[in-house]
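Progress report, Aim 2. The chain analyzed during this reporting quarter is listed below.
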Amino acid sequence: MLFSILMLALRSVRRNMLRSFLTILGIVIGVSAVITMVTLGNGATQAIEDKLTSLGTNLLMVSPGQRLGGGGGGGVPQFIEADGDAIRAQIGGVAAVAPQGRANATVVANGRNWATTLVGSNNAWFDTGNWQLASGRQFTDNEQQAGAAVCLVGETVRRELWGNTVGQTGLGQPLRVRQFSCEVVGVLAAKGQGGMGDQDDTVLLPLRTLQRRVTGSHKVGILLVSMQPGSDSGPLKASLRQLLRERRHLAEGDDDNFNIFDTQQLAQTLSSTMAVLTSLLGAVAAVSLLVGGIGIMNIMLVSVTERTHEIGLRLAVGALEGEVLLQFLIEAVVLSALGGMIGIIVATVASYWLSRLMGVPYQFDLAINLMSLVFSAAIGVLFGYMPARRAARMDPIEALRHE
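Predicted structure tokens for the chain:
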């Protein structure tokens, strides 16, 4: 019986294809909007997490001044390399500490020049920033201690100076930095754009090389502190803050003249914020589903009126009220479920291409797709019940008299 009722419902839908399509259009738009918004929101969240992860895992960035990147006036004392040694020796839960200095310069090699950022640090810089080598090697201990004229280049610098010719990695080649020349001993693996611009547009030097040959100062601009996996950042930051206050001779009532920036907390905050925004966008888009449901109710009421004679005939030959109710209810569910399936297809195509256009990863979410399909079918039940009940409760004699 259920199968025959389903066939009747499908024949009714097929009989008025254009009207059926226009009826489900609201459901198609609603479902596709919900899925697209949620998919793009998830992709944007993943992109943010990937960018922050590229900066470093469980990373604390300690800078002089009261905001990230320094500041607070010329009287704020800078860090020195010994501060990093003290953090590594005296604070538990620290995996690596990399004092870092920076400067801008134009580098020359292979008959070309390129304006880039010089970074001075030690080999712990690779661990704190999740850096990998595409080729070559890291600095030796002797090179770091002596401030040797060696360097590693980022992928952007390598491409701009040596091009994309196969085999032209720049390894072993001289690179002129201001007034001195250094040997390229390694090429950094590409990381792409980050929160501070192109992360691959950099030249890495031993810290003492940068201090002696470029900046002329033993000061350090920032300390990169990587925590061990599973470490609680709260107690570690408290210990770090106390140590730095002691080393910088701050009295009990003095404000900190340094900033500790926790990338892990920032990642959690941004992820939770994006989740709320994604839910909000999904909820706004879901309003279209209700509009589509109202359209289904309207067209089902029209269908009941048009088929009054047919309904009366069925009731007169012995059809039960429940069978008539089920027939029209199935018609409403078929319409809304069909709209849901078309909406899922449209959303999948749209979200895939929009993800590529926006430069965020495409994140297929099976749960939101199934939920949208079930919800669209539920819309059919909710808004189709009243027209179906009206059809089932018709008086057969009055229905047969209807013209």
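The chain is about 55% helix and 20% strand. The CA atoms of residues 65 and 258 lie 4 Å apart. These observations will guide the mutagenesis work planned for the next reporting period.
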